[in-house]
Every structure is written in C-alpha cells, then in structure tokens.
Amino acid sequence: AIDFQAHGGYELFTQSDTVLYEECLEKIPYVNSLLKDVFRGQKDVFSIKDDPFSFGNVQKQLIFNEFEGQLDTGKMMRAFIVKCAKNSILIMNSTHIDSFYVKNEQICLKTNISEEIHVNKLIIATNGFASQFLNLDIQPARAQVLITKPIKELEIKGTFHLDRGYYYFRNIENRILFGGGRNLDKKGETTTQLDTTDLIQSKLEELLGTTILPETTFEIDARWSGIMGVGTQKKPIVQEIQPNVFCGVRLGGMGVAIGSSIGKQLANLVESTNV
Fold first, then answer.
1. What DSSP designation does 76 have?
2. How far apart are CA 95 and CA 106, in angstroms?
3. Does the pLDDT value for residue 275 go beyond 70?
4. Tell me, what's the pLDDT at 271?
5. CB proximity list for 123: less than 8 A, separation 6 or greater
6. Where in the chain does DSSP place strands (E)?
7. Which pTM was predicted?
8. What angle do CA 105, 110, 115 make, to 5 degrees?
9. How many CA atoms lie within 13 A of 219 on its CB side?
C-alpha cells in the first residue's frame, strides 16, 4: 500500500570538502560496528562505492548504504487516510487551532471555525508548527524543493545527500526531486511561511546543472516548500506536557522515516496514563 523502493542511499561530498570526506571514510568501520546489532549481523551497512552516475564537482567515491530506500509519500498518506476512515477517525482539513485551555477536566480547542472542540486528550504532532503551543527546544525550519519534468533515460536511482546533508535529492520514476539549501539563509528559513525564495531556488537549479545532471538537459516542473521541526538536539520530543496534553515533535527533518515510530511511542504514552 505504501510502495517501498530499496535503491540504496548515497552520501556525496564536494571536491572542496576533502577534510570532512576523509574523516567520514575513516569512521565507516566504527559506525558499521555500532549498527551490527541493529541489522542483526548482516553485512556492513556503509561501504565505499565508485560514483556510478557521473556527478560533477564531487568526490569520485561515494559512501553507500544499501539498506536505505524510498517511500512513495503520496501512497503513504492515502493509506493513512484509509486507515483513519476504517477506524472512524475524523480528519478535519483546513481547521486551524488557535489555542487550547482546560475546562471541567476537558480540553477546549479554539479554532477558526465557529464552534469550540472539546476533547479528553490532546496530542500535538505538528512538528515545526508546534512552537506556537510549546515552550520547548523546537523551532520551524523551512525546506524548499523543486522537481524536474520527466527526463528521458534517467539513470539516477536512489536517495542522495549532498554537502553535509544540507541538500537531498532522489529520483521519482524518471524525474529528480531536489531540496535543501537552508544553510544559505538559516534566519530567513526559520519560518512557518510556505513560500519559496529566489536565493535558494536559484542555487538548487545551479546544483542540478553543475553537479547532479551536468550532461543532461532538464526543465523544472514545480516548486514548493515544507516545514520541518528542529532544535539543538536531533532527538525527538515525546512527552506529556501537562495533564492529558502530549506532544511528539522535533523530528529533525526525518519525519517520513521516523514519524510512524513516534506515533507508536505517543500512543503507548497516552495509554499508560489511563492505567
């Protein structure tokens, strides 16, 4: 129902980032030793692989993780909606919660619709948007994205991280989805505004032409942005913040990968408070 493609993941290093590149290569055996128990003694998770895609302006050997894969997030969300419907869970789109308060042992949600909503328990799981409700170490981080039009005979398959992880790209069938560049304007990208900027979009196009598709003609099909939740630590925050109010936030840009796990942790936490 979700569609998982195990093409593997690649870490790319720019030609000028030699020090970090060599440091990461040196640490591969150590990281693999830490992951052996996680992957139950299978072969090493990370290895070194010659660049099979003819990228430009990067180190010619890449760090490869054959266990990384791609999710079809559209199918994932459709499966989520179907599961909610089967369990009689109501999804209210375009409803903004402005604030909440406790009254008569119930939690009252003030929204942009005319009526207040009253619930027994409240879970805040809006990640970077949650900073308006929570006095915790979390702030929004916008990530800008673009996607190309279909590219004939595209050979790039997999998920890729470039320039210390500030850029991410993957193939979606015969297109390239490419996002990142928040490091170009961290202050400006600390926002919940779902806009794009010329500064970052221009850099994404430049890197497409010089690094990812240096010998290929491409056209941009669409551009958009999304909001992540980050903080001084990578560890997500899963806790009860006041009686019957819980949160699962600060997913650090890994929401698609770890969101289901955070959901299970939250469910277990809520259930434990009923005992």
1. H
2. 20
3. no
4. 93
5. 246, 247, 248, 266, 270
6. 4-5, 9-12, 46-50, 61-65, 70-71, 97-103, 106-111, 117-119, 122-124, 139-148, 159-162, 167-172, 175-180, 220-230, 237-242, 245-249
7. 0.89
8. 95
9. 4
